[in-house]
Amino acid sequence: MPDSLVLRLWRDRDKHGWQNFAIAMLVLSVALLVALFSAAVAQQGRVTLAAISTVVALSLAGWVGINIVPKLARRTSLRWIVYQVDYRLTREGIIYLGVVAVLVLAAVNTGNNLLWMLLSCAMAGLLISGALSRAVLRGVELRFDMPEHIFAEQPVVAELELRNEKEAWPSFSLRVVGENKKGAGPILTRPVFFPYIPRQSSARQKVELSFPHRGNYRQDAFSIRTRFPFGFFEKTRQVVSELEIIVYPKVAPTDHFYEVLPLLSGEMASNFRGRGHELHSLRDYLYTDSARFVDWKVTARAGRLMVREFAREDERRVMLVLDPFIGPPPATPGESVAEAQQAAAGHAARFERAVSMAACIAWHFNEINAALQFRTHRFTTPMAPSAEIIYEALRELATIQSDSSALGGQFLDDLASEREVFKIILTARPQNTIPTALWSSSYFLFLNSL
After folding, report:
1. Which of 177, 165, 5, 163 is nearest to 79 (CA)?
2. What pTM, to 2 d.p., does this model score?
3. Which end of the chain is less congested by CB atoms within 10 angstroms, N or C?
């Protein structure tokens, strides 16, 4: 059978602290008696004795304040004092204070005892409201659990837990609200309500979250709010948070992805069939085949297009490349500021579509268990099974930003030396600036066409 509260308090009692408390109460009781004695002898005109008694009473009280009170303070948990609680007057509270003000005026002007009693009850209600609401907020700890991997525009379910660590009292009617500094993307965007949390227990609520964009999201603080018990004030206690998450780009394939995928598959098939040197077979031409594998002599004899297939000499490996150097937005002579801003916004939107396309392609190769390498100007993964590097690639895609400078030409030049790997390159560069050696082993997706 679980221990009662009284038994737990008795077992965990602080003996030395209780001794100090008893001594303090005893000495203060003696000081009170001496002070009463001083008042009595002063009424009899014995001024000297009254003065001596007063000094003795003050000395006893001062001794308790200097010697006993600090010892008791060191043994007392003062966590409840450091809770910063903010108060906001509600509409109901304004009405209630208006009624109190009317009672004050009526009681002062009439001197009616009943009005004074009503005013006392009204003031007691305010004091009780403040004490109970602070007790409800005290001793409540918060925990917020998020999924490990989160994608933009895809709902996820998080779990918010409030634990009531108070020994004796439950907590009622709590709302948890996310608080963020200006400009920061919040994680918790709507309040979560907890009607009741028993003592020494916890309550959990499932929260559905959705993030509209890729990138970093953080929660600077959570506010625990209550209007318990009467709703005159809304009391808020802030809990500092260091929660930060990375939201990956959206990976749901778009219509444009479905348009690109057949072309991409055809280029890959042509590349991997053509990387060997030993002739494997001849077959009819398909629209996905590259023209460089057409056997024109056999085509002339057969009267239809025929292509050569070669034996593949190594395993299929793919390098996915996102080139962030998009250059400055195109400037039109005489354009207004609004038009320039609109052009810049369109430039940024194309880059976001490129990031989303790269994420879709990477996820596609992950689903077919291909060997994949992902590269940007600042980041590269090893060539490995896609399941091993997919989340590293998505994490880079979540935070990458476009570069409007004209630098970065060396980035594509370095890729040209890796001819044994088929490359899928998303870039905004003009075709005439791309190294010639890249064309034979790469498939290009140009941002202007996305």
Report:
1. 165
2. 0.67
3. N
